[in-house]
Amino acid sequence: MASRIGVVQFPGTNCEADVVEVVKSLGGEAQILWHGDATIASCDGIVVPGGFAHGDYLRPGAIARFSPVMDAVVEFANGGGPVVGICNGFQILTEAGLLPGALQKNAGLKFRCGQSLLSVASTQSVLTSQCAVGDELSVPINHFEGNYTCDDETLARLRDDDRIVLRYVDNPNGSVDDIAGIASETGNVVGLMPHPERAVHPLSGSTDGVPLLRSLLAA
């Protein structure tokens, strides 16, 4: 039976259709989950996609985390369900308390858009289980507030617990420890700033997003 992935849509989300198309192309099923609904139906996994949820007013993700669907997403994640937040979705997951730290404005206060080379730092997550440590993946980025930050204690815990799953080879935004993606303590929740759903077809210039999204479907 194919995995059913729910893709959360907020006002201002703009990557939900990309995720749905990719999930289907990889043999999964996908459905859009409206942010105002208080259920995730019978989904096997959740993606919180990129965009500008609620216009990024206040700060990215600060309003979206109060949407009714997020209570169901948090409950699902706390029960061990796989949840992946991409770009704006990563910001929302930190605001919701599912991942530690925060995303701030890029170093140099510049919007970054282009291919970014990533190194797989851990396979202990629902997004990287089908990769190998040291794999290098070319995946695009598209953000202004993708500079990951956290306090020293949190960073030490992320390192010690093998929860930094992706690092930038050439840091484009100033993220601490070159962090591009992190996981929860149990590895079932992952947030990353790069867009793997935009790196799945030869015409996009890279198919390196495929092993990441296959990992999610396998989870």
Please describe what this structure looks like.
This protein has 219 residues and is of the alpha/beta class. It has one domain: Rossmann fold (3-Layer(aba) Sandwich), CATH 3.40.50. It is 21% helix and 26% strand. It has a nine-stranded mixed beta sheet with strand order 2-1-3-4-11-10-9-6-7, sandwiched between helices. Strand 1, helix 1 and strand 2 form a beta-alpha-beta unit. The relative contact order is 0.17. The mean pLDDT is 96.
Keywords, separated by commas or semicolons:
single chain, Rossmann fold, two-stranded antiparallel ribbon, 5 helices, nine-stranded mixed beta sheet, 219 residues, globular, alpha/beta
Shape designation: globular
Q: Describe the biggest sheet?
A: 9 strands, mixed
H and E order: EHEEHEHEEEEHEEEH
Taken together, the total number of domains comes to 1
Give the CATH topology: Rossmann fold
Report the structural category: alpha/beta
Please bin the fraction of helical residues: 10-25%
User: What is the level-2 CATH architecture name?
Assistant: 3-Layer(aba) Sandwich
Name given to the CATH homologous superfamily: Class I glutamine amidotransferase (GATase) domain
Task: Indicate the mean pLDDT.
Answer: 96
